[in-house]
Amino acid sequence: MARKKKEQEVNKKKVNTDGVMGLVGSTTEQAISETLEINYMPYAMSVIVSRAIPEIDGFKPSHRKLLYTMYKMGLLTGGRTKSANIVGQTMQLNPHGDAAIYETMVRLAKGNETLLHPFVDSKGNFGKVYSRDMAYAASRYTEAKLDPICAELFKDIDSDTVDMVDNYDSTKKEPTLLPTTFPNVLVSANQGIAVGMASNICSFNLKEVCETAIALIDNPEHDILETLPGPDFSTGAELLYDDAATREIYSTGRGSFKLRAKWQYVKEGNMIEITEIPYSTATEVIMDKVAELIKNGKIKEITDMRDETDLGGLKLTIDLKRGVDPEKLMQKLFRMTTLQDTFACNFNILIAGMPRVLGVGEILEEWTAWRMDCVRRRIYFQIQKKEDRLHLLKGLERILLDIDKAIAIIRETELESEVVPNLMIGFGIDEIQANFVAEIKLRNINKEYILRQTKAIDELEREIAELRDTLNSSRKIKGVIKKELKNVAEKYGKPRKTEILYNIDEAQPEEEIEQVPDYPVTLFISKGGYLKKITQASLRMSGEQKFKEGDSLAYTWECSNRSEILVFTDKFQCYKSRLSDFEDGKASQLGDYLPQKLGMEPGENVTQVLLPGDYKGFVLFFFENGKAAKVPLSAYETKTNRRKLTGAYSDKSPLRTAMALQEDCQVAVFTTDGRAAIISTAQLLPKTTRNTIGVSVMSLKKKAARSFAARLEDSGIVNQSRYRTRALPCAGAILKEEDSPDKQITFDV
Length: 749
Prior knowledge:
By secondary structure, this protein is an alpha+beta fold. Helices cover 33% and strands 21% of the residues. The strands form ten sheets. The protein has a four-stranded mixed β-sheet. The chain has a four-stranded antiparallel β-sheet with strand order 10-11-13-12, with helices on one face.
């Protein structure tokens, strides 16, 4: 009992004011919201602001600390030094361990090929961005220095262009940003995962980015696509251009680009050589996937695939079997492997310490505003320096009036400490000017030296006036930025590595169809929504068709196993499927239940089934309210494997009949009050939208509605001239007994 009582007392102990547990095993209660606020949120903000998300200069803190350390080590103009030495020096700014620092250097190195414009001129093995397994050498074996383009990163950094702050132990200063003279945030690829958010920025061509920035400065309404057609990746490959997707990414900062490997067929060896792959994949990933496909029997055209990458660059070689079409094989590999891949964009950038997802135009606008601030600070710094020099020279000019007096004052002053005050009194100058005069060497106290020095006064005054004029003019500051951008584009611009392919249909569904056996089948659709696909041989041997109780036949067609069907439902949706997706059945079976097979929504029922053929012609929709709509069949053709189309037809009135027609013909329309009319489909104009409400075909009597429609030859009407009409809408004629359908009408589409 005593022991139990002691444990209870220990458990009641609270945490002391320093946050240290008073006794081992003691606990304290804390609300989860308080824990998140006190412990988790500071960590999350630290990762977002100080680690994972790049800022407007295009760098994360780790990049900036490494490059600035190399700059202070003199590696911009000097020779290379051991990477281990650089890593050690960087730890004075970045206390995250040598491994993390060296990995940062590897990514920025020329040898790794991650960036279009590497910032580290490397020597040794730094791995490759396109290889998952190629390990980089240890830092003690490699050497590095700054690439010449880094001169644009540190230009005027000593002219107060950016803020300098203390490092983690307040022993050194480091810049909060680098004053890049070009929009490096779009030129250098960058990705990072923070807490609750991420960033993934693709790289663009340096010359194109600079031209776009200049164009936007001149005209904020400039169409960015005219000067920046798409991203440019260090691994090259081909970009499948999509105008809508590109514009969305440029405006919102989110979306994805489609990339495809670059290849060539070598006829002499009957092989395919892949020389460039998408930036988002690796050679090992591709080879593993191809090996898996070969093992599973999904690819039979390949005899061997090997990695022949060497000092000349990347090369994957595929040996083909005899008679294989290389174009068709590559189309299959594009669909089944990462030889065709996507780069998902998320332009999340820190602006004034706040993460924001920006479009390309907004990024360049923010960069321009930030760069204008850098230029203003540089000009102000230059003005201050020139004004200080001018102030000294004006004091020297005063002495020109009487050099002998200045010498006499200095010679006759008994105490050294009184020289400056006496000069100030004698010539009416301030202490700074007097100190400058007092420090002049005796040999320079002559008229020639003083005249030569004071000649610069007019020039300094002119330069200061020009700088102040520039400082007060946004237009002139933008002119300075444009000039710098042009110089960078001319000096460091390179041709595009990623080729842009226009008007390329990346999906190749016909290739998949070729793999499907083609043979004639007969299709049966019941009113209850059951589908049966029966081969000719099975149909000859079968007896009467079996249906569920209360169900009966609605449609029947002779078609091919490769045919497609369009299934319209009462939820105004259309489901697209291939008959090859259905198993061959028998007459004695009920068949496949379409709502279940096609994954329809609960309560959704089949209204009409059509065979679109080659999607030439149009679909006629007849609604209960007497209206009809004529929609091109091509509106239901999809280039992808999308199987569901919403808004397939108008939802204003229930659908009674839909029929697919290759060309215009005559159609009989019936109403519930015993009327009929014969119209020509040529009288209906096709509509571009699928969900058009259509036009009135029949003027319905009160409480009457459209019942159904059928081709004239299938309608059973004998006295056709009685029901013909020239103008729409029409009232129709009362249906005579001999013209009434005497059996179930089937629709042959």
